[in-house]
Amino acid sequence: MSPAPNLPARARVVIIGGGVIGTSIAYHLAHEGVTDVVLVERDRLTSGTTWHAAGLMTCFGSTSETLTGIRLYSRDLFARLEAETGLSTGFRPVGVIEAVGETDRLEEYRRVAAFQRRLGLEVDEIGPREMADLFPLADMDGLTAGFHVPGDGRVNPVDLTMSLARGAKNLGVRIVEGVTAGDVITRVDGALPRITGLRTDAGDIECEIVVNCTGMWARQLGERHGVVIPNQAAEHYYLITDTIPGLDPDGPVFEDPARHGYYREEGGGMMVGLFEPVAAAWKLDGIPDDFSFGTLPADWERMAPTLETAMSRVPVTLDVGVRTFFCGPESFTPDRLPAVGEAPDLQGYFVAAGLNSVGILSSGGLGRVVAHWIAQGRPDVDVTAIDVARFRPHQLHRDYRRDRVMEVLGKTYAAHTPGVELLTGRGTFVSPVHDEMVAAGAKLKDVSGWESADWYAGDGQSARVTPSWGRQPWFDRWEAEHRAVREAVGLIDMSFMATFEVTGRDAGAILQRVSAGHVDGDVDRITYTQWLGPDGGIEADLTVTKRGENDFLVVASDTAHGHTLAWLRRQVGDWDVTIEDVTEATGQLNVQGPASRELLTRLTDVDLSDDAFPFRTARSIMVAGVEVLCVRITYVGELGYELYVPRDRTAAVWTALRTEGTAYGLLPVGLRALGSLRLEKAYRDYGHDIDNTDTVGMAGLGFAVDPGHDFIGRDAVQTEREQPRHDRLVQVLLTDPEPLMFGAEVLLRDGVPVGDVRSASYGWTLGGAVGIGSVAADGPVTKAWLDEGTWEVDVAGTLVPAVVSLRPLYDPTSARVRA
Q: Which side of the chain, N or C, has fewer Cβ within a 10 Å radius?
């Protein structure tokens, strides 16, 4: 079929979807100098979800630097876009008030406020009287505080989209309405296909990049293209009352999440928006292609209690008529974070979807991030939490989407107290020692779809948790597990770790090329290394074990599973390499602690002495009659071993270890203790402590780099050694043993905020809350600069003295590891 007259035969980039996200990416691509862009929209701009969005512009609420930055940029763009395009966005900085009544939510919001202030957000904690002055129609009963953001407000979604579209067209982007996207056209490129075009009902377009911005259609279009994007549409409600005399059109937006509602003026009446605790999925089998500007029938019976609760916060809404009661679809992802970036299994296919009801307020910044990623080939912000590669095929299943969207929408306005977790869609992947962990009293948690032990209540006991910001009764169990590893021996199941076999004539060569460390050396050796981008940014943090001349085992974290596999496959080209994902076929048991050697010696005939089996040795041995790959390595800072076991024999090895381990004080150890142990030793965790914007120098990982071989990012590493960055990862320890850290606390040097804590736990050996943070200085961050400052951590508004160090505070020379 020949292209329609208004549809070009070729473009560098084709964007599918004419909502606020698609037009924002088009606009920002043009500003990046990429104007050979076509945006195709199957109906008209704003159709789908954009047209009926409530138009809130709220920056408050996130402890992600990336997501906060996206919102702050969006707000700034909305305020200045009219001057460029001549079309108003309808942005009005009327202010936003986040109301608080519960103690847990107050603690959460104080932590959020401190974090976001450091990033430039103006936010003030105010009392009920001040809230009443700003929003007099609300009943303040039960409210103890509010968080006022004067620069936030509201925006008109349709006007914003049209302004972005005009800005894009003014710079040369072509926007074509009434064109429906079909299949993608690809060619084979190494181990992965690559985009070469897009089929539409108006003809084929040759292109290098396709961007799926189709909102609630993203999942079904992605499935057609072989890409996993598990967002799911759900019913979403708001109403608009009849005119309320005296209602200030410039009054602030008021949110009371405990009553499931947000409130703002609309056309002389009051808009009451709802995030109901009991939600409903919509069109699980696929959104109709002809659904554009439609509404959904309201479920009055289900919504009546939520509606009454929300309206009672602003009693006048109960006394006037309802002008509009609206129900329309919004889509949500399984973890309530957007799906962004290049698809892991299809080169040149980008996604920007799954905005979880914050698409309008995120649209400017998200469009900038994706456009920069496409234009420059690399994202310039941390995308580890929002990367579309994190999703797995099981999340596309109908029942999973139904149950999960009901839960995530229902918890949108819930407090994010430590211990709150999602309960639906659990148990997709089960450890080979799942039954054994349950029998040991495991408190199970979801780990990227796997059920794993957070901590253990004890054999035959049931673990119970009450979400809280404070200390819990089970902390003594956590402490016992932690001390067992430090003083005796612990047994940790880590079968969820991403595990790949890399074989073939060129296996060593390609792993050497992608790894900053020297991984193709002696057989039976494990190497801790990073994979870097051309700019030196860390793409993966993992281990590579050489089992034979052309036989390697790569092990990465569960959260980086999809991205790590895709990164390696993208480098394959014409090399003779086979990559096999063996995660589900492999059990991984960690035996860690000063007594680990003695315990394993009871179960094997192999000499495990330091001379015969030194640190970083990896060798196949028999343990309790089972052949395992035994690797002397640690992630807790002690003498220890990782055992890679065939799945069907893992339980037998676990049982033998527990039986023989009784004499050595062995305890089953969960991920809670794993976290506290590794943070005491300042071991990094990709996606939490380090991300794609960090470098090996900034992260303090230069020791893992071998500059003597040619690897991706080598030039950037050398440049950084000559010109160090002015930011650095550090270890943080509170000197007061009582306060707890959870991550995102602000770090202050001599009273001035200079960074924040990226991840945290409690250091039972060090005697205080411990974490890894990033700090920035006017010059390179040195030990002298750290030592000369007085350090504090802002814990929910209270400044707590701290020690900050470049070296690990626990066993800095690693003598225990090499014992």
A: N
Lowest mean pLDDT among 67-71, 299-303, 413-417: 299-303
**What is the C-alpha end-to-end distance of the chain, expressed in Å?**
71
Question: Has residue 597 got a pLDDT over 50?
Answer: yes
* 172, 30 contact by CB (below 8 A): yes
Pairing state of beta strands 13-16 and 209-212? Answer: parallel
Structure tokens that stand for 3 in this block: 């292209």
The amino acid sitting at 27 is Y
Look at residue 1 in the predicted model and tell me its pLDDT: 41
Name the residue type at position 160.
L
**Burial label, 194 (beta-carbon count in 10 A; 0-12, 13-18, 19+):** middle
Q: Which is nearest to 217 in space by CA: 370, 50, 358, 331?
A: 331
Spatial distance between the Cα atoms of 20 and 159, rounded to a whole number of angstroms: 10
Beta strand segments in 568-650, E: 578-581, 586-592, 618-623, 626-631, 640-646
Across the range 526-550, mean pLDDT stands at: 98
- Are 174 and 8 a contacting pair, CB within 8 Å? yes
Q: Give yes or no for a contact between 113 and 62, defined as CB atoms under 8 angstroms apart.
A: no
Q: How many whole angstroms separate alpha carbon 595 and alpha carbon 601?
A: 10
SS3 (DSSP) at 813: coil
pLDDT value of residue 572: 93
Q: Which of 678, 805, 787, 676 is nearest to 741 (CA)?
A: 676
**708: Cα separation from own chain's centroid:** 34
What is the average per-residue pLDDT within 758-770?
Answer: 98
Q: Residue 489 corresponds to which amino acid?
A: V
* CA dihedral of residues 152, 158, 162, 168 (deg, nearest 10): 60
How distant is the alpha carbon of residue 617 from its chain centre?
33
| C-alpha pair distances (Å), 713 with each of 135, 189, 510, 703 | 54, 22, 14, 16
Nearest to 259 by CA among 277, 244, 271, 241: 277
Q: Percent helix, strand and coil across the chain, each rounded to 5?
A: 30, 30, 40
Encode 297-317 in three state secondary structure.
Answer: CCCHHHHHHHHHHHHHCCCHH
d(CA 608, CA 612): 6
142 pLDDT band (50/70/90 cuts)? very high
What's the pLDDT score for residue 5?
60
Task: Indicate the helix (H) or strand (E) that contains 726.
Answer: none
* Alpha-carbon dihedral angle through residues 701, 703, 706, 712, given to the nearest 10 degrees: 0
User: What's the average model confidence in pLDDT over 532-541?
Assistant: 98
Position 59: which residue type? Answer: C
Query: Average pLDDT of 638-651?
Result: 98
The full 3-state SS of 536-577, as one line of letters, equals CCEEEEEEEEEEECCEEEEEECHHHHHHHHHHHHHCCCCCCC
pLDDT for 290 beyond 60: yes
Euclidean distance between CA atoms 105 and 663, whole angstroms? 46
- What domains are there in the chain, each with its CATH number? 13-388 (3.50.50.60)
Q: Are strands 727-734 and 768-776 parallel, antiparallel or unpaired?
A: antiparallel
Residue tagged 């897009």 (tokens): 198
Kindly give, in sequence order, each residue whose CB lies less than 8 Å from that of residue 590, ignoring residues fewer than 6 positions away.
Answer: 490, 491, 492, 493, 494, 635, 636, 640, 641, 642, 643
Q: Is the dihedral of CA 666, 667, 668, 674 positive or negative?
A: negative
pLDDT tens digits, residue range 702-755? 999 999 999 999 999 999 999 999 999 999 999 999 999 999 999 999 999 999
Query: By C-alpha distance, which of 160, 25, 19, 173 is closest to 80?
Result: 160
- pLDDT tens across 655-685, in order? 999 999 999 999 999 999 999 999 999 999 9
Beta bridge partners of 147: 98, 125
